[in-house]
Structures are given as structure tokens and as C-alpha cells.
Amino acid sequence: MATTYEVRFQTVDPDRRAEYVKMYKQAIQEIKLAGCRGGLILCSENDPGGVLVLLEWESKEHHLRWRGTPPHTRFRAAVEDWQTKPSTGGYYLAEAI
């Protein structure tokens, strides 16, 4: 069975990226109660403002159920002002190679 990943491409102020990563890691912790198994936050070497977040979910439905909950609202409030433009991305199914 394929694993569901939420992939988010984000842009932040390059001078604040390290702070953003630290804050994001703290703000995201409640997500684990909603069916997120963990993830990675990747910082681009080529784009100093580029950040990629990769979250592993039990299913897409687990993520959709989390949206709009009080923990999700707190998380969004914590990260929104740090991003210099809206994030993009979506859901991906992963299989081992």
C-alpha cells in the first residue's frame, strides 16, 4: 500500500528562514495527534527563501479531518505571517524503489 504525503513548497524571508524552521517544528507538534506520522522540513541550497515540507499521513482523509480543527487553526496562525507568498503543493502517493 502506498503512503500518502502532503508536500508543501513554501517561500520565506531568507534572513528569517532559520527562525521559521525552528518555529514551524514547534508549531507542527499537535499534528501528530491527527494521524500525521512525521515528516521533514527541507531548506533549499539554491534558493535561500525556499522551504519544502514533507508530511507523512496515515491517509489523505486524516489530513482533511485535521483541517479546520482548533489545533490546525493555531498552527496556521503561527506560520502564515512568516511566508512571503502562499504555499503550493498537494498530495503524493509514495512507493519504495
Task: Describe what you observe in this structure.
The protein is of the alpha+beta class and 97 residues long. The chain is 29% helix and 39% strand. It has helices spanning 17-27, 60-66, 70-79; strands spanning 3-12, 36-43, 50-57, 83-94. The radius of gyration is 13 Å and the shape is globular. The model has no long low-confidence stretch (mean pLDDT 92).
Biggest sheet features: 4 strands, antiparallel
The topology string of helices and strands comes to EHEEHHE
Helix content: 25-40%
Average residue-wise pLDDT: 92
Measured distance between first and last alpha carbons: 13 Å
Give the oligomeric state of the chains in this entry, treating copies of one chain as homo and distinct chains as hetero: single chain
Query: Which radius of gyration do the C-alpha atoms yield?
Result: 13 Å
Strand order of the largest sheet: 2-3-1-4
Number of separate helices: 3
**Unreliable stretches covering 5 or more consecutive residues:** none
Structural class: alpha+beta
Strand content: 35-45%
Shape: globular
Question: How many beta strands in the DSSP annotation?
Answer: 4
